[in-house]
Design goal:
mainly alpha; two-stranded antiparallel ribbon
Length: about 130
């Protein structure tokens, strides 16, 4: 059964153009969360591009076909752990502010260097810690 899962997973990832291996996505997401925990050191635009890895992961999580495999649940559990760590350094915008989309695209980081902080201040009038 495991062979079928990996075959279907790679077929899905190729079709969605989201990489070759789920471990690459998990590693990229985990590394980004580690960087965010330490204090993001780039612009809000770079963050917006880098956070797309979580959107790619979500495509896999939303696949009904992949969800039917037991091996899928290990992937989902890994993502859940990384998500929880990310949520510790992420602040969601209020629903009233009109932001829509996936939760990881509807907020900002608690910590960042000058470039990130300046971008938040200029575009959203938000101050954060360094």
């Amino acid at each position: 059964m495991e062979d079928n899962y990996f075959f279907e997973l790679q077929k899905f990832m190729k079709k969605e153009n989201i990489g070759d291996f789920p471990s690459q996505l998990i590693n990229a997401w985990s590394n980004l969360v580690d960087i965010c925990t330490a204090g993001y050191s780039d612009t809000i635009y770079e963050f917006d591009a880098e956070i797309m890895v979580r959107t790619s992961i979500e495509k896999i999580l939303n696949s009904e076909k992949l969800n039917s495999f037991t091996e899928f649940h290990e992937f989902r559990d890994q993502v859940k752990l990384i998500d929880e760590k990310f949520k510790e350094v992420f602040i969601l915008f209020n629903k009233e502010e009109g932001f829509t989309g996936n939760w990881w695209k509807r907020g900002y980081l608690k910590y960042g260097d000058d470039e990130y902080r300046v971008g938040l201040k200029e575009h959203f009038n938000i101050d954060i810690d360094s």
